[in-house]
Design a protein that fits this description.
The chain is about 40% helix and about 15% strand. It contains 17 helices and 15 strands. The protein has helices at about 15-30, 40-50, 80-90, 95-105, 120-130, 140-150, 150-155, 195-205, 250-260, 280-290, 305-310, 330-335, 345-355, 370-380, 395-410, 410-425, 430-445, and strands spanning about 5-10, 35-40, 60-65, 110-115, 130-135, 170, 180, 210-215, 230, 265-270, 295-300, 320-325, 340-345, 360, 385. Helix 5 (about 120-130) runs parallel beside helix 8 and helix 10 crosses helix 15 (about 395-410). The structure holds uridine-5'-diphosphate-xylopyranose.
C-alpha cells in the first residue's frame, strides 16, 4: 500500500487557506504527500509576502495553481464575484490537473481530494474520478451543525426557504448544544445572499466521506456529535500562518510588544474580510484612546473601499498604541505582553485566542461569528460581548468599560488558561484529535 497523496483545494480566502495549510502540514508530518491547489492570484500573493510558499517544497508539499477566472485587476474582496467566477471556471480544469499530476507521479497517484466550503464541486469531481473525498470545515462544528440542520429548521418553521428567521426566538440545534437566538444562525449579515448556494453546497458536501472539523469535543461536545461524518481534528495550530499569508506581516510589532509590560496590551484585529463602517471605525479608534493601557491594532488597507472607511477621527491620538496593516497574529497572541483580544470572532482567531489563553471582547460582523461569540461568552465564558447602542453602534465608552471589566475579572482569565490547557492535551500523541487524524489517514490509504 503506497503513501496517501492528498490534493487539497481551499476557497481562496485567508480563513480557509490557513487551516488547510496547517492540516496539510499535519498530513506531511505523518508521511503523506500533499499537492496544494492555490488560485494563480493567491499563489503570487503568498509568494511575495513573508515566508513564501516555495520554501515548503521540500517538506512533502507541492504547490500547483488553477485560474480563478477573474482578470488580474479584478477586486477579489468582492466575494460574490469571486465565488461565482470560481464555480463557473475552475471545475473544468480540475480533472486535467489530476491527470497531469498522476502522469508525473505514476507510483503515487492522488488518493483523496480535500476541499473547503464553496469548493464542494471538487468533492463531486473526486467522486466522478473514482478518488476518495473529504471536506475540511474551517469554522466551528456548531456552525456546520446549523448548516446540516437547514432542512429541519425549514420544516420546523424556524426559518423560511431563504434562511430568514420566521420570528424572534431561541432555538437549540441539538440537545447537547447551547440555546441560541435564531438570528445568530450562521447565514447572517452579508452571508445571507449565499444562503441558496449553501443549501446546494450541502448536497455537494455529501460526496465527502468525512467532514473534518477544526475543533474538539472539549470545545463543542454537542456539535461534533450531531453526525457520524463529523471528525474533530483541531485545533490546527501546526505552524505560523505566515507561510500562507496574503499580506506581508509587520514584525516590528513584536519588538514593540517586547517593550510593553506583561499582560498590558489590548490586541485588536477583525480578520481578513470584515470592514468596519466609518462610524464604527471612529468609535473603535476613540475607544482605544480612552484606555489607560497600550494597544496593538491591525488596520488592513486592502482596497479603495477600506481607505474611505478607515478615516481616523481628528481627535484620535493613538499615542499609546501601535497600528499595523497585518500582524503575525499567533505570535502576538502568545506574547506575554498581551492582556486581551478585541476580535471579530472568526473561527481561526477564536481558536488562536483560546489556544493562547487570552480573554476576548467580541465584535462579530457576519456568518459564524455570532455563534462563535455565543461559545466564547456564554459556553466557555472566556470573554465579554461588546454591546451595541440603539443605533447599532458599539460606542467608545462601551469599549473602555468592557476592556476594564474583562481584565478585572480573574475568573475569565482562569477559565481561559484552563481551556488552553485542555486544547493542548488534544493535539498531543494520545489526544482525541491526533487519534482522529490517524484514523483519517488510514482510511485514505
Ligand atoms: C473567515 C470568516 O470571516 C470567519 O467568520 C470564518 O470563521 C473563517 O473565515 P476571517 O474573517 O479572515 O475568516 O477570520 P479568521 O477565521 O479569524 O481568520 C483570520 C486569520 O488571519 C487568522 O488565522 C489570523 O491569525 C490571521 N491574521 C489576522 C493574521 O495573520 N494577521 C492579522 O493581522 C490578522
Amino acid at each position: 500500500m503506497g503513501i496517501p497523496h492528498f490534493l487539497v483545494i481551499p476557497y481562496p480566502v485567508q480563513g480557509h487557506v490557513n487551516p488547510l495549510m496547517q492540516f496539510s502540514e499535519a498530513l506531511t508530518k505523518h508521511g503523506c504527500k500533499v499537492t496544494f491547489v492555490n488560485t494563480e492570484f493567491n499563489h503570487k500573493r503568498a509568494n511575495s509576502s513573508v515566508g513564501g510558499l516555495d520554501n515548503l517544497k521540500e517538506e512533502g508539499m507541492r504547490f500547483v495553481t488553477l485560474p480563478d477566472g477573474l482578470d488580474p485587476e479584478d477586486d477579489r474582496s468582492d466575494h460574490h464575484k469571486l465565488f461565482v467566477s470560481i464555480k463557473t471556471n475552475m471545475p473544468a480544469f480540475l480533472p486535467k490537473l489530476v491527470q497531469d499530476i498522476n502522469a508525473l507521479d505514476v507510483h503515487n497517484n492522488i488518493t483523496c481530494i480535500v476541499a473547503t466550503m464553496h469548493m464542494g464541486w471538487a468533492l463531486q469531481a473526486a467522486h466522478k474520478l473514482g478518488i476518495k473525498a473529504a471536506f475540511l470545515w474551517t469554522a466551528s462544528a456548531a456552525s456546520l451543525a446549523a448548516f446540516y440542520f437547514i432542512p429541519r429548521l425549514i420544516e420546523d418553521g424556524i426559518i423560511d426557504s431563504q434562511g430568514e428567521q420566521t420570528k424572534q426566538q431561541e432555538i437549540q440545534l441539538s440537545p447537547n448544544m447551547p440555546v441560541m437566538d435564531a438570528e445568530d444562525l450562521p447565514w447572517g449579515g452579508f452571508a445571507k445572499k449565499f444562503f441558496p448556494h449553501i443549501v446546494k453546497e450541502m448536497k455537494n458536501l455529501e460526496f465527502g466521506e468525512w467532514w473534518l472539523c477544526n475543533s474538539t469535543s472539549d470545545l463543542e461536545p454537542g456539535a461534533v456529535s450531531v453526525s457520524p461524518k463529523f471528525l474533530p481534528i483541531g485545533p490546527l495550530m501546526e505552524s505560523d500562518s505566515n507561510k500562507s499569508s496574503f499580506w506581508e506581516e509587520d514584525t516590528t510589532c513584536l519588538t514593540w510588544l517586547d517593550q510593553q509590560p506583561p499582560e498590558s496590551v489590548v490586541y485588536v484585529s477583525f480578520g481578513s474580510i470584515a470592514i468596519l463602517e466609518p462610524n464604527q471605525f471612529k468609535e473603535v479608534a476613540l475607544g482605544l484612546d480612552l484606555l489607560k493601557r497600550p494597544f496593538l491594532w491591525v488596520v488592513r488597507p486592502s482596497s479603495d473601499n477600506d481607505k474611505v472607511n478607515n478615516a481616523y477621527p481628528d481627535e484620535f491620538h493613538g499615542s499609546k498604541g501601535k497600528i499595523v496593516n497585518w500582524a503575525p497574529q499567533k505570535k502576538i497572541l502568545n506574547h506575554p505582553a498581551i492582556a486581551c483580544f478585541i476580535s471579530h470572532c472568526g473561527w481561526n482567531s477564536t481558536l488562536e485566542g483560546v489556544c493562547s489563553g487570552t480573554p476576548f471582547l467580541c465584535l462579530p460582523f457576519f456568518s459564524d461569528q455570532f455563534v462563535n461569540r455565543l461559545y466564547i461568552c456564554d459556553v466557555w465564558k472566556v470573554g465579554l460581548k461588546l454591546d451595541k447602542d440603539e443605533n447599532g453602534l458599539i460606542l467608545k465608552e462601551e469599549i473602555r468599560k468592557k476592556v476594564e471589566q474583562v481584565l478585572e475579572n480573574g475568573d475569565i482569565k482562569a477559565r481561559s488558561l484552563k481551556l488552553q490547557e485542555l486544547l493542548v492535551d488534544n493535539s498531543v500523541v494520545d489526544g482525541e484529535s491526533s487519534k482522529n487524524l490517524e484514523k483519517f489517514i488510514n482510511w485514505a490509504k
